[in-house]
Amino acid sequence: MRIVIAPDSFKECLSAIQVASAISGGIQKIVPEAEIICIPIADGGEGTVEALVSATGGRIIPTPSVDSLYRPIQSFYGILGDGKTAVIEMAATSGIELIASEERNPMISSTYGTGLLLKAAIEAGFTEIIIGIGGSATNDGGAGMAQALGFRLLDKNDNSIGWGGGSLNQLHRIDSSNVHPLLRNIKITAACDVQNPLLGPTGATLVYGSQKGATPEEIEILEKNMAHFAEILFHEFGIDYSNLPGAGAAGGLGAGLMAFCRAGMRPGFNLISKLTTLEEQIKNASLVFTAEGRIDTQTAYGKTISGVAQLGKKHHVPVIAMTGMVSGDLTELYKQGLNSVFAIANRPMSLEESKANAAQLLAATSEQIMRLITGIEKK
Q: Where in the chain is CATH 3.90.1510.10?
């Protein structure tokens, strides 16, 4: 039996590699002779670097940066196995999981640290960079990132504007004269799992602002500020980013990458699955396991499990998902090719307890699934 394990991470709990390892352990208890191929997957958010470096035989480069509140941290970027491509995840510097819940404030949080990682990769000589954009604590449209790369964002008095989405209304013009000289020679690809535009009811602020700590009053301010920011970008670059798919990803970082870095946008799962040869592995598999911390109605739209399910359906390979939490109608996921979903909790427990024991619960659940499968096969 050839089994592919292609999970996403369990946020604030286990990396995708750790999830895959736990599932593999449970399978091996029942089918020790199984050929198991672990391919940790990410869709542009946390774990993107780890997944790609692991799959391609690359390496991690520790790199100093700052978090979304400008505090110094030790971050990282990756080099793919080809030795030519750098990969960055904005969650490693500007991510929401790096700051405590009571500190989250998109009025002041910035993508400056993400820009520092881009700058480090550029100065290391990489001309191709993949950046995963997801899991952000920010709503600044990528303004901080641009500032780290040398763009001067100026108010009416030619002073630099403040940090965060709360300061975007101050922006009057953009001075590109001090931009990093190597930036124009870099091909940057942004990987994201959402198609949200920059503005409006499905945009960066109205959909995600409250998750990042914004109050209803602040959300109104942030949306107005982002609209002003979009007007300035249009004036400076001649493109209206307000309704472009993916422009609203990571608090508008999608728009910022397109505007300041001429980045191309790619669905995170599609890009990463191609680099990890996931489809080729699934094509030759008997069974596929996937997993994510939460499965709900939105999982069918660009998330890892949706992508894995569709590849399974394409090649007529059953796909089983495990998760810490299930909610909503999963009909669309089943249509896409998912065969079954198993919640890993084996008794009533709190979210904190589930997180603390996630690895053991994943292993136990995968063991029970394999007991069922092998029992049926013996009939």
A: 48-269
Give residue 285's pLDDT.
Answer: 96
Q: In the chain, which ranges are E strands?
A: 2-5, 35-38, 59-66, 72-79, 85-89, 128-132, 152-154, 173-175, 187-192, 264-267, 287-295, 319-326, 338-343
- Predicted confidence (pLDDT) at residue 185 exceeds the cutoff of 70: yes
Question: Which tokens sit at 358?
Answer: 């996630």
Residue 161 to residue 168: CA distance in whole angstroms: 7
The answer to whether residues 32 and 1 touch, using CB atoms and an 8 Å cutoff, is: no
- What's the rounded Cα separation, in Å, for the pair 91 and 344? 26
Helix (H, G, I), strand (E, B) or coil at 307: helix
Kindly tell me the burial class for residue 220, based on how many C-beta atoms sit within 10 Å of its own C-beta (0-12, 13-18, 19 or more).
Answer: middle
> Can you tell me the distance from the alpha carbon of 379 to that of 333, in angstroms, rounded to the nearest whole number?
29
Architecture category of domain 2-41+277-378 in CATH:
3-Layer(aba) Sandwich (3.40)
pTM: 0.87
